[in-house]
Write a structure and sequence with these properties.
The protein is an alpha+beta fold and 226 residues long. The chain has two domains: 3-55 and 158-209, no CATH class; 57-157, no CATH class. Helix content is 49%, strand content 15%. Helix 1 (3-11) packs antiparallel against helix 2 (19-32), helix 5 crosses helix 8 and helix 8 (155-178) packs antiparallel against helix 10 (194-209). The relative contact order is 0.20.
Length: 226
């Protein structure tokens, strides 16, 4: 069985971890000579931890934000944070939830939360202070953010894993269809011509990346599943 067939077989078995197909994809990409796919496989394997990393659109989730808000002498614990008090840039930078963890970590989180539950992330005090400074018209509102927590349903993790599985499967099926002699070419490293390499790169970007270029700030404690 060739490598593409192996990857397809593992991806179509939902009981199997995604790590095997991703690591095989890295080997395949290395033989093809496509560094972009190698880098993608590395980040899916180890996580998107660098703040400068942009992430694929399928790793952008949905969340709600709860905060301890102080307005004058009144303190509201565990209150919903009204995001419209911030400008568009701040909402994009701070309130676009990035699901950054490695695939193995996401699979563990999904297993722990299979009966339901939430992911929670506590934001650091300096981020709360920075966000307070970014509240529009705060000279009049006088709002201070004391604590901030992001809460997302565990189904967001399940959705990310499903997207990776489907997209990688689609990519392999397309490779098999568009480049039927790929495995033969791979027997001699570097034997793919420029046109074939470009086709692989285009398929990868069309099917998997669709990069949302989300570089939101995520400073705070690690995500926990409750």
């Amino acid at each position: 069985m060739n490598m593409i067939d192996q990857i397809i077989e593992e991806l179509t078995d939902s009981s199997k971890s995604l790590m095997g197909p991703i690591l095989k994809t890295k080997v395949l990409a290395s033989r093809i000579g496509n560094q972009e796919i190698v880098d993608w496989a590395d980040k899916e394997s180890t996580g998107y931890r660098d703040r400068s990393d942009s992430i694929p659109a399928y790793r952008v989730g949905r969340a709600v934000y709860r905060a301890t808000l102080q307005q004058g002498s009144v303190t509201q614990p565990d209150a919903p944070l009204p995001l419209m008090i911030f400008d568009d840039e701040t909402r994009q930078q701070f309130f676009t939830p990035r699901i950054e963890e490695s695939v193995s970590a996401l699979e563990l989180m999904a297993e722990r939360g299979k009966d339901g539950g939430n992911m929670r992330k506590e934001y650091a005090e300096d981020i709360c202070q920075m966000l307070t400074a970014r509240i529009q018209n705060n000279a009049a509102l006088k709002i201070r953010i004391r604590t901030l927590t992001m809460i997302a349903d565990i189904s967001e993790v399940v959705q990310v894993l499903a997207a990776i599985r489907v997209k990688l499967l689609d990519f392999m099926i397309k490779l098999e269809k568009e480049l039927p002699l790929l495995e033969k070419a791979l027997k001699s490293i570097g034997s793919m011509n420029e046109e074939e390499q470009e086709k692989v790169a285009n398929l990868f970007n069309q099917i998997i990346i669709v990069n949302g270029d989300h570089n939101s700030v995520t400073s705070g404690k690690d995500i926990t599943v409750l």
